[in-house]
Design brief:
60% of the residues lie in helices and 9% in strands. By secondary structure, it is of the alpha/beta class. The protein is elongated, with a radius of gyration of 27 Å.
Length: 331
């Protein structure tokens, strides 16, 4: 069978060996899908063999990559390559020196010390490498969400991206799915109000949205978020807790010594991404404003815990007071 004509991009992907390194399952799966998609675009009859480490025994790779009568294109995927036996690793290393035509070998490796010799050999042989690191930091997940929107050709505000991360959490598959849903359902720029309508039913996310808008001095938006949160069943005590955290973060950062986010993060016990966010939020705040806001939070906390007749009114009063305090330097 004559070799199919490939685009430049496909040729970049369809190299003899690709190594996908890391422990983020979504990214590993995407690395495999990218190769398979390119191979099937070049030849719809591409044969895909997807194997676990225990399925690739000594001699198996030679069988899978031996020349066939019809010279069909093939993709061989090996998952958990760090767990391959010593004899199988010898086979794979030998294959790097003389890869078969029309075949793309994709090795999924967790990284780390285990099986590092295989990775080193693949890199030395010029394998294409795809980084698939576990995204443990909120800032990394935020960058991932921004990238998802860009990849889908849509615009989303920074507040919308942050709101989505706050709402969904650390699961990249859920984040990717949420971005895809918003892109499919919503026209125009996606903002935090849109994210709120879809995902504010998650109590932690919606309570922190109220707090963020309040400490930014955006009273009307904070009140709208508050009413929505309460209407979806968010407990008032969660909202007072979020308000308290928001105001305290402003106070802690405003009284801290200047420095890099990483240094301040260690000093204040906040992640660096939160330092950056609070720095943006603290514009307009004064020490007196922080004191006023903390009193408002304390009063609201008492109101929602039985010290008042109307918890919702206590929260609305606190939100307005905090938003006004946020503008104390300006007013």
């Amino acid at each position: 069978m004559a070799r199919k004509t490939e685009s430049a991009d496909a040729a970049d992907v369809l190299v003899p060996v690709t190594i996908a390194v890391g422990q983020e399952d979504l990214l590993l799966d995407r690395a495999v899908r990218e190769v398979v998609t390119a191979a099937r675009a070049a030849d719809p009859d591409t044969d895909v063999r997807d194997l676990t480490s225990d399925q690739l025994q000594p001699g198996t790779l030679a069988e899978l990559t031996s020349p066939s009568l019809f010279a069909e294109r093939k993709v061989v995927v090996v998952r958990g390559a760090q767990d391959l036996s010593a004899d199988t690793i010898k086979d794979v290393k030998a294959y790097f020196g003389a890869p078969a035509e029309e075949i793309t070998l994709v090795l999924l490796h967790a990284g780390g010390a285990k099986g590092k010799g295989l990775l080193d050999a693949a890199r030395k042989a010029g394998a294409r490498e795809v980084a698939c690191p576990k995204m443990t930091k909120p800032a990394d997940r935020l960058a991932f969400v921004r990238g998802e929107f860009r990849t889908l050709g849509r615009s989303a505000t920074p507040e919308a991206c942050q709101a989505l991360v706050d709402a969904i959490g650390s699961d990249l598959r859920e984040l990717a799915s949420a971005v895809a849903q918003l892109v499919a359902d919503v026209e125009g720029t996606i903002d935090d109000a849109v994210v709120g309508r879809y995902y504010t039913g998650r109590a932690e996310a919606s309570s922190f949205t109220v707090a963020d808008r309040a400490v930014e001095g955006r009273a009307a938006e904070a009140l709208e978020a508050l009413r929505w949160s309460l209407s979806t069943g968010v407990a008032p005590v969660l909202i007072t807790s979020a308000l308290a955290q928001g105001v305290r973060a402003i106070g802690k950062l405003s009284s801290a010594r200047g420095g890099r986010p990483a240094d301040l993060a260690r000093e204040l016990g906040m992640p660096p991404w939160k330092i950056d966010r609070v720095r943006q939020q603290m514009k307009g705040w004064t020490p007196d404003g922080v004191a006023v806001a903390l009193r408002a939070v304390a009063e609201a906390d008492a109101g929602v815990k039985g010290g008042g007749d109307d918890p919702e009114y206590a929260l609305e009063k606190a939100v307005v007071a905090i938003a006004r305090a946020a503008r104390s330097r300006r007013g």
